[in-house]
Design brief:
Layout lengths: L10 H10 L6 H18 L3 H34 L3
Length: about 80
Amino acid sequence: MPYIKKIDREAALQTTLDRICDSSLTGGDINYIISIILKRRFFANRCYAEANMLIGAVECAKQEFIRRYLNPMEDEKIIQNGDI
């Protein structure tokens, strides 16, 4: 997870994230936002290294989400409902 220093988290970036994280967004909306970010970054520096970096960032973000949020939730459900 890219633990960014608080001083480097600009207010403008936080405002943008607050708008993007609106709970009314659908999975399709979120997919679109991520796809546009990837497309714009890639076409700003169209090369294999950029694509590789972007894919790595998305994959690591996915894995971090699973590790930090999904796995603990699943562990709670095992305690509540019993293991398989």
